[in-house]
Amino acid sequence: GKWHLGVNCKSHRDHCHHPLNHGFDYFYGMPFTLLNECQGTDDPELAKSLQDTYWLYTQMIILAVLTLLIGKLTNLFPLKWKIIVCLAICGLLYFISWFSSYGFTKYWNCILMRNHDITEQPMNLEKMTPNMLKEAVSFIERSKHRPFLLFVSLLHVHTPLVTTEEFQGRSTHGLYGDNVEEMDWMVGRLLDVIDKEGLKNTTFIYFASDHGGSLEAHRRNAHLGGWNGIYKGGKGMGGWEGGIRVPGIVSWPGVLPAGTVINEPTSLMDIFPTVVQLAGGTLPQDRVIDGRTLLPLLRRTVQRSGHEFLFHYCGVFLHAVRWHQKDS
């Protein structure tokens, strides 16, 4: 699915950020994020204000060239043709310099990869849902006789809300609701395959979101960014709970009791140490690991989260701190 951490560092061949250089054995998906440009039907999303500024300057240059050209032809301005031609060439070069990046965003950024190879450029969004599902099911089927880790990072509930025709109009909550329903169907299909292959009681499943709904996502009067309930704020809004507090659903029949609700603060950073413990491994000792294994909390051998403090950074800036006093 969506990797969103990029590919390269210093050259287009080094692939230093690629999933296969960070512990994964197989990758199928987008190395970047999903942009409006990938669909091509919405307003540009990548550096839109910067693009608008560049286009304004380009229009000013075009207007200046036309004004000088009309002045020259009507003898209003005693200018040499060389000046007008030079200005026109400079304007053309200026336009090419920025449009070569932003005008071809769909080609540069909306690509599909299998391992290190690009399979679609630009990618076909209409086929992405069935293709991703097919890849995930295939991986489960060929890995069922040995331990495996499957990480599915869905493109759903993220603008431009690409939804197959079968699910369009299903929800009373508009396109976003349709997209949620399709995502729910995809997750259900994966769970069905795990059950069919007899892996249900031996598979730890964790479903969560990476952030809250985007309150800024609108198309005219339609809201495209989800709902955060009673919590203030949303995606990209510092440390407000609407942006960083999300539900997590865990399933492991026969090991974890069903219907249990745990109101302790945890983090997506906890996935790593949890998976390491499940695999019988040991955490790296040469660095600080911020995550805490979820298993003691899920099995109710402990009642409190291992996190007394949770820090939320935006870049290098600390935006929020959650203090969960151990004896309070």
Automatic annotation (TrEMBL):
Q: Which Gene3D superfamilies match?
A: 3.30.1120.10, Alkaline Phosphatase, subunit A, Helix hairpin bin
The UniProt keywords, alphabetically, are: Membrane, Transmembrane, Transmembrane helix
Segments traversing the membrane: 54-71, 83-104
Which residue windows are coiled coil?
Answer: none
GO MF terms held by the record? arylsulfatase activity
Output the superkingdom of the source species: Eukaryota
Which cofactors are named for this entry?
Answer: Ca(2+)
Q: What range(s) does the Sulfatase N-terminal domain occupy? A: 1-280
User: InterPro entries attached here?
Assistant: Alkaline_phosphatase_core_sf, Sulfatase, Sulfatase_N
Tell me its family: Belongs to the sulfatase family.
The entry's protein name is Arylsulfatase D
Q: Which organism is it from?
A: Eurypyga helias
